[in-house]
Amino acid sequence: GLNKETVEGLAKATGNKRFAYDSFRRLLDMFGDVVLGIPHESFEDKLKGLKAKVGVQDDIDLTAEHLKELCDLYEKVYDEHGKEFPHNPMDQLKACIKAVFGSWNSGRAIKYREVQGITSLLGTACNIQTMVFGNLGPTSGTGVAFSRDPGTGKAVLNGEYLVNAQGEDVVAGIRTPEPISTMEKGFPKAYEQFIRNVHTLEQHFKDMQDVEFTVENERLWMLQCRSGKRTGQAALKIACDLVDEGICTPEEALLKVEPDHVKQVLHPTFSAEALESAVYKENVVAVGLAGGPGAAVGKVVFSTETAEEMTKEGVILVRETTSPEDVGGMWASRGIVTCRGGVTSHAAVVARGWGKPCVVGCDDIDVDMKTKTMTIKETGEEFKEGDVISINGSTGEIVRVAIETTVPALEGEFGKLLGWADEVPDVCRVMANADSGADAQKARDLGAQGIGLCRTEHMFFSPSRLPVVRRWILRDEGLEQVQEFQREDFREIMHVMDGKPVTIRLLDPPLHEFLPHSSEINEKLSKQLGYDDSQALASDIEAMHEENPMLGLRGCRLGIVREGLTAMQTEAIIHAAADLIEKNNDAKPYPRIMVPLIGSVAEFKNQALLIKRTAERVKKERGIDVPYEIGTMIEVPRAALVSDQIAGVTDPEDGKRLCEFFSYGTNDLTQMTLGISRDDAGAFLQVYKDLGIMEEDPFKSIDTEGVGFLLHLSAAKGRMVNPELSLSICGEHGGDAASIKFFDKVGLDYVSCSPFRVPVARLAAGQASVKRRKDEIEPMSRKDRVVKTSPMA
């Protein structure tokens, strides 16, 4: 409403000419920037020039005449940009309202919604309210405060204020603010009232508050309040303290912690100081997708072999993309970078599972495997093997220098909060995907109630085992030795998870993934695999080539076609459990044997009967009663449609049901339902999201209308035949909070995710149950949720 005429009226009405022109110059600046798109720097340059001319350092030292001159300079900025400042107050108001509505589609707003996962809102609101002024003079001021420390969570008022200033001055850092505690001296009455107000607001909203205020001529005005942003460590402490102080219940406290807060606490990161430092900001050379949270520093390497050789020196594995053959190098590395693939690609999935920072789909770089170089496209800067870089898996940034990392301490609040989540009535339980004893131990330490997916193929890739596996694949030799490998690994995992279920998936991937590429074939390798020459080896490998291996000879088809495979794996599982019981009579191994990729009832029955006959034979031979279950993965859409038939399959000899559990493999179920390759989706998913064709990456959060419908249909059909049927999921969605909310609603007994995502899943499961019961929603398909433990327990 200010213009050249009304500014004089404001000066007379307040008796403060400086205040009037200070307010007018602020309007000219912000209106030009926000409404008309004139760069703020244009106004800032005029301000700096005037301060230099009159010899002052701070804005507050400018007199009324100086500010009047500044207003004239600002109007010239409009002329320089071909814009006109409207002097009619109603025209100003209309333009401001339009700017607020238009801001919804600004690049910054779109990016914010993307980062925050905001997809359902259609626009923003516009509030029009009366102003109060903190720039009226020395008896006025403005500030921002938090009712608790947002960095540590400590119950102390934390904030800053400025005398004779407006709110944006505090945020913009135009002057150095004073600590909020010193306000007591300058404005004792306002400060006392402010303390009372902050306490009242926190008690009312039952959360730490971010408060903005203005003091106008010693009178306090509360401008706004909201739940304050906080670090992960602070979020845990605040939630626990609010319960201890009787402000809220444990269930209410759970809803105040976000999944990202738990992630922050679990992963090594760059400190807030490091992220804000010039050293960091000036050395970011490329940005990709945030594939795995956390931070890592290491030497660049380009091959699995080199990563394994240099692992003690600390390395970052840089590849165009990764495959299962790279798992050794990935494990040996502190972090991973790929220039292709999305956040659900192999590299990202494996990295998250191991808690390793990962940057994927980094289009800013070129990776040349021949010259072993990583080149920044924009600048041509080249990184060679051995050069040190830092990566930020939480932001996707690659930094050219070493940045120090820090590991937040896991204090008592961590266990207390997740304990509350586990105790929520009717909560969906959390298990882990683990392929080794070390993974299983990590999962158990982080609160997993069992292993929901043990992928037997990951045990085959170690350098000592891979040649044996290849001999079996190519020449049908050495199956007994492969069984010993598996028996040893299963024994270790079941020992770690004693008394808790361990779900072991039979061999799933196509066999070509274990075979050497043509470039690796040589005489030495041929002799190692029992061939007379490399040509014969190459011929046999070529004969196993598949045009579409994902839909080819894999999963249960392997067990049906490759004689002895399913029996061998079953023997290894039951022998491993029997070994533990034989060694310690108090041991309580509880294996669950899972048949992958079934599409028909006949496939499941074929494999289930073979598993049962083999298991019973081994038990009889050992004279040890090993408890076990048989179930299947539901990942082919047809299997979901005939789930009632699968759940009803019985043994013709004793009439007992063969299928005791369904585990939904949502990775493949999503690929097959949507017809989208998980590893290639990065080529178009972002465009789809930008155009509104897809709101979310379906490999990150479950597609509830399509994949979710099949899952719900399958669950209902299965439970209709067998009310005691155990239902779970074991895809990447098991660690996603939004997906867990859907799984809770469907009535699944548990979700399974990578060990490092277990705490996040526990929190999300507890929150989902609290929200569902709060909304009085009855689960769609549910028996009482109980994760079975060993019958021997």
From TrEMBL:
Residues 774-787 have a biased composition (Basic and acidic residues). It holds the Pfam family PEP-utilizers_C. The lineage of its organism: Eukaryota, Sar, Stramenopiles, Ochrophyta, Bacillariophyta. Belongs to the PEP-utilizing enzyme family. PROSITE patterns: PEP_ENZYMES_PHOS_SITE (PS00370). Keywords: ATP-binding, Kinase, Magnesium, Metal-binding, Nucleotide-binding, Transferase. Substrate binds at R455, R505, E635, G665, T666, N667, D668. Residues 774-793 are annotated as: Disordered. Its EC number is 2.7.9.1. InterPro entries: ATP_grasp_subdomain_1, PEP-util_enz_mobile_dom, PEP_util_AS, PEP_util_C, Phosphohistidine_dom_sf, PPDK_AMP/ATP-bd, Pyruvate_phosphate_dikinase, Pyrv/PenolPyrv_kinase-like_dom. This is pyruvate, phosphate dikinase. Its cofactor is Mg(2+).
